[in-house]
Amino acid sequence: MSASPPSGQLILASGNPGKLQEYQVLAAGHRIELQLLPGFSAIREFPENAPTFAENAAGKALYYSRHCDRLVFADDSGLVVPALGGTPGVLSARYAGPGATSEQRNAKLLEELRGKNGADRAAYFVCVIAAARRGRCEIVVSAKVDGEIIEHPRGAGGFGYDPIFFFQPLAKSFAELTPAEKNLYSHRGNAFRLFMDALEVGKR
Q1: Per the structure, how many domains does the chain have?
Q2: How far is the C-alpha of 32 from the C-alpha of 9, rounded, in Å?
């Protein structure tokens, strides 16, 4: 593995400052600088149409790494409900159609689960992070967090499916977690820590 150690610069394959800020919070304490990919908006968008989170994350990292000389990382994440055949899955952001709001996606999912109870409401969030350099994939890590879909939204924080995802260990929905709690327990937080560990291993 030729991945750089966590004491330099990593490039996020995104043009979203909000996502960058989330990762910068997670990277606090590491000797590392995170930046958005320069010129991201001018690059033709990578089509995230693979059937798995890992393929989408790795494909995105590989694609955008060809536009940069440094280590580029990308992620793909979403919600999986086994009782619904794994949906929303990789279509989590498009579950209620293009342009739908989080509230509309949540409403659709709650309708799909109407009348289901117990284990049929089990769900988990997944996050896969992949890193590549000059068209070569160097790291792929994944993490998940288990929960269940509650019948009514709870909490004012978070985003996406957070208000209806209940995390039993803290007896809260993800939208009720503090930022520190979410960073500690979330799929994205856990995946990023695995990513940092993989970079450390690559340094040795």
Answers
A1: 1
A2: 6
3-state secondary structure of 7: coil
pLDDT of 110-144, one tens digit each? Answer: 999 999 999 999 999 999 999 999 999 999 999 99
Give the residue numbers spanning the domain of 18. Answer: 9-203
| Residue 76 appears among annotated catalytic residues | yes
Task: Say which residues have a Cβ less than 8 Å from residue 90's Cβ, sequence separation at least 6.
Answer: 48, 50, 51, 52, 53, 56, 76, 78
Q: Is the pTM of this model over 0.85?
A: yes
CATH (domain of 50): 3.90.950.10
Q: Which of 69, 76, 120, 162 is catalytic?
A: 76
CA 9 to CA 113: how far, in whole Å?
A: 43
Asked if residue 189 belongs to a domain, the reply is: yes
Amino acid in position 23? Y
Residue type, 103: E
Look at residue 60 and give its three-state secondary structure.
Answer: helix
